[in-house]
User: What shape does this take?
Amino acid sequence: MKQLITLLLALVVASCAFAQGKKPEKVAIDTLEATQPLRSVTNRAFKAGERLTYRIHYGFVDAGEAVLEVKESKWKFGDRDAYHVVGTGRSLGAFDWVFKVRDRYETYIDKQGVFPYRFIRDCYEGGYEIFQDYKFHPEKRAMRTHEEEEYLTPEFIQDLLSGFYYARTLDFSRARKGDEFEITTFVDGEVYPLKIKYVGKETIKLRKGKFRCMKFVPVIQEGRIWKDEDDLHVWVTDDANKIPILVKSELVVGSLKMQMVEYEGLRNPIAKVD
Assistant: This one.
């Protein structure tokens, strides 16, 4: 269930569950110079006011729900504006009795460059609690954890939640079957090069109707939660929003389906088929 909620909130970048991580090099941030120019990327995919609601089904049971919201940040980072993204996850029904989940993820994302300044994770999952507060220094290619550990990082590294939004800014317009896309993230003290592979286009039917989609699979580390890449598929709307709207997975024990059940405040028309 823990991996289920992580998958829910991270969606595409949840392949950290089976990627190979690497411990970054420790450093004293105060000794570093700010030599990295802050980037700008084109973002036509999302804006403040977007709210996405997902429902997770474990087998035939409604197991959980997640909500992702994009807000304007009340804080500036230097002279740069940011989005404040909040992701919440909770267990439902019978799952809430046997494995109570209350997860909250927050990230502050640079509007121009779509990279994080701060990531907060506050989770309760079946008696297991975890709190993380990461502060990123993109101008120094470094970050600091809530435990005051400081690390060098690859440039513009993503956190677990910001990586989902950065993935939506990638250009898939010329993608061919088999093309791979990589996003580097910092998760639980390690750097993960997460990769997804483009499979093709499909039209899928959900509660909200039919949608034109692009289909992806993770490029995985063999022998982890999923046996092979065909055990997990992600469908993303084939439009400028590029919203993951369906995930299907065969786990070692049982199966998982996650689908979008509500959406509002989108930046662009969604690829819905009449």
